[in-house]
Amino acid sequence: MPGTIVITAANSSLAIPAVQHLLTTYPEFTAVLTVRNTTDNDVNTKKLRAMIAKYPSAKTSIHELDLTDLSAVHEFAKVIIDKVSSGNLPPLASLVCNAYYWNLYGGMETTKDGYEKSFQVNHVSHAALVLRLLGSFGSDGGRVVLFSSDAHWPGKNGLEKYPPAIPDELDLLVKPAADETPDNLGRGFQRYAVSKLAVVTWMYALNRYLKMDLNLSNITAVAINPGNLTDSRALRTNTPTMLVVVSRVLQLLRPLLRFMDPTMRTSADAGNDVIDLATKNVHAQERGYFTLLKHDVSAPDSLNEETQQRLWKKTLQWARITRGNTALTETSLQ
Q1: What pLDDT, in 10s, does the model give residues 54-76?
Q2: To 10 degrees, what angle do helices 184-212 and 125-133 make?
Q3: 19 exposure class (CB count in 10 Å sphere: 0-12, 13-18, 19+)
Q4: Each residue's pLDDT tens digit, 120-131
Q5: Residues 32/59, Cβ–Cβ less than 8 Å
Q6: pTM attached to this predicted model
């Protein structure tokens, strides 16, 4: 039964064509779209709104959501929960955790919650949103789509200088030590890669607990590496000039470079795949890690069940998840 699909950072390079694919191919779904700035002062929100206007019968709404503020995340989740329970919004069918943050140009940043910014936006706040909204999925279940990257696997991304790893002291993920030497590109990319490793590692624990719960077992979670998107604004946001120039060259050479890297593609191609996963049009009953639409093996560190469990417990704490604000059973919260 068609329901509601929530998409974070719905005005991103990937999300705008993804939403267009959703409205064109799956118009029976309701789209709840979040952005940091809902006004047309944001050129990308304006583009999103202009695209939606081409579909006058579309069931869409745009909401402000600041993932650097956990209180705002919980408030937004409460709004969606109340709308679903009152019948003003169809039950959830999917939650697409598309938003991301990195800073490869400046030093480490912290949020108002005191957490490292990339890690909070990419992992903690999305985990909070997912766990708050599990009880708002329909009886048919649905899908959680998380976003990873080849960066989560040490040695697989050309921007890597310092490999990502999950430390023994997990609080270092949200409050890392100051950089020993000024290396904004290297350390900034490492923080981003670590957050993506955490996303994948946590996804396995989430699926375990979903499968254990009779009320939630028909919700499947996937983490997708959407590919190397040469036209993404990410390559031109909080990045050094060198990377901006490289991104333009990659766009020109993409047809040739795809022979060497099959994951190199456009944001629109990736957006289509994400929506097909979200609607369960593909891999309907599958869980786990995907590269594009291929079920794949994730980095070895992400497959360690002890690490998955430790990260699960810490994420509950960081994300402020309690017995009273999630549909998870008490066993899952211990």
Answers
A1: 999 999 999 999 999 999 999 99
A2: 20
A3: buried
A4: 999 999 999 999
A5: no
A6: 0.96
